Amino acid sequence: MEELLIVSSLPSQLSARVRAAAGVDPELRAATRPEFGHFQSNVALRLAKTEGKPPRQVAAEVLARLEVDDLCEPVEIAGPGFLNFRLRSSVLAAYVGEQLADPRLGVEQAEHPQKVVIDYPSPNVAKQMHVGHLRTSIIGDCFNRVLTAVGHDVLPQNHLGDWGTQFGQLVEQILVERVDASALTLDEVEDLYKRAAGHFKTDPDFADRARLRVVSLQSGDEETLRIWRQLVEVSLAGHNVTYARLGLKINDEHLAGESIYNAELATVATELKDRGVAIMDAGALCVFVPGFNAPMIIRKRDGGFGYDATDLAALRHRVRDLHADRLIYVVDVRQGDHFAQVFAVSRMAGWLPDDVEAQHVGYGMVLGSDGKPYKTRDGKAMHLSTLLDMAEEVAAPPIALAAIKYADLSNGLNKDYVFDVDRMVQTTGNTGPYLQYAHARMSQVLARAAAEGVMPASAEVTVLDAPEEQALALALSGYGEVVADVAATLQPHRLCTYLYDLAGTLSVFYERCPVLRSEGAVRDSRLVLCRAARSVLAAGLDLLGIEALDRM
């Protein structure tokens, strides 16, 4: 069977037609009242100011050039010159049928598919993921799902913190305690890390040995590397449990820890120096970037490299070797200046061509009810697993996770938000569980229809007379457009708003338009509307990383 693809949403089709007639963006808005139709535009009022004509005259001239008879009922000029549009019920009905037949539910595929590399969730070896990793995980995973849905080739890169001076302390402490690192759990490794840090501060001899152990690690000493690998394996096992619990579309194939760039750091420094981008300053190799107060230090005075050099090497690898067209870094908003400088230096070096887009998507902090960063009672960063446990004490795991993810994504990403699990798990109001409930409600209606033998074989809507039916069909037609918008803007709260509004429209439809108690073509059409609404809710929830439940 040939795959059916919807060209574009009804609002976007109408907007394009009006733009062609008016010459400018019509800025269509949903009508404020049913008697005004489905959409309104003030384009004539805006054009009247530049053309020096009465707005109603301009509206009439636009209307004379406008070709929308196949989409709309006769367009009305209202008030001082507003244009009111009412889509034909036959057009709305046909769209719902086409949407259900389209495997993508009207989500258009990118005209120029890109290779998109997304940097997330990037925890550290020898440490459990903490509450700070919640947002990068949820946001990065949503971007992965949305960009894949519109046809891009998405490659997550888990920039694991698996290299650095802390491993000298860890390996040395393991040798002191004579423990088998491979037999430890991640909890035990984290406790060992704390003991090593304390030992380093109080025992100068241990501190000296730990520093030498870093040199051994960097120079490839077999015993040191063996223990380091064991620490990495234990950490990965622990992190993978959390990834699975969060439902992330990420696995070991996406690992790209800091360690893999270690061999490239000297080359990065040499290339920057040879190209005249980096210069020596007070014994350190630096890049002075216009607009930044401090230089980027590529190589320290002692010859060591920091994470600036590692991030440059990672970007260079992603563009040169992974052939990325678009780079997205989902990292704490406080790292904005750092990434702006990394991108600037990479462009100066020629590693980031003009046709490759690089974006830092910063996110705010998770706050407690006191409005302060969410921590344990003793002031330490709370483990992410503990936070999930707390939510699951209030609701079943899929509902708890829906509550957490929706609360995160429905806010502006760069804003802080309060983690209030009691509010987040409610099945009323603007919450993830409310959307799950809307989906489950439709699933039960359709299950009853199937059990009663009244489920229509056809996916066509033939009757669409009630305003609530038309409103639901119109809401469904906007799904593809909002997904494309999120893919372009990386603002998932717009998808959350759309799904919440859709669920509200669906609720009004269900309350005012009897489904199973109606008969004949009316019942068949309403069941198809229910099928379409359930499908769009399920698909939209999946893009947010939320499970669509059939029962609650």
TrEMBL record:
Protein's GO biological process: arginyl-tRNA aminoacylation
Principal location class: cytoplasm
Residue span(s) of domain DALR anticodon binding: 435-552
Gene3D superfamilies: Arginyl tRNA synthetase N-terminal domain, HUPs, Isoleucyl-tRNA Synthetase, Domain 1
Protein localization: Cytoplasm
GO cellular component terms given for this protein: cytoplasm
Family matches, as InterPro entries: aa-tRNA-synth_I_CS, Arg-tRNA-ligase, Arg-tRNA-synth_N, Arg-tRNA-synth_N_sf, ArgRS_core, DALR_anticod-bd, Rossmann-like_a/b/a_fold, tRNAsynth_Ia_anticodon-bd
Enzyme Commission number(s): 6.1.1.19
Motif 'HIGH' region location, chain numbering: 123-133
CDD domains noted in UniProt: Anticodon_Ia_Arg, ArgRS_core
PROSITE patterns linked: AA_TRNA_LIGASE_I
Domain of life (superkingdom): Bacteria
Reaction catalysis annotation: tRNA(Arg) + L-arginine + ATP = L-arginyl-tRNA(Arg) + AMP + diphosphate
DNA repair among keywords: no
Keywords: Aminoacyl-tRNA synthetase, ATP-binding, Cytoplasm, Ligase, Nucleotide-binding, Protein biosynthesis
MF GO annotations: arginine-tRNA ligase activity; ATP binding
Record-annotated Arginyl tRNA synthetase N-terminal domain positions: 12-87
Subunit structure: Monomer.
Family from the record: Belongs to the class-I aminoacyl-tRNA synthetase family.
Protein name in UniProt: Arginine--tRNA ligase
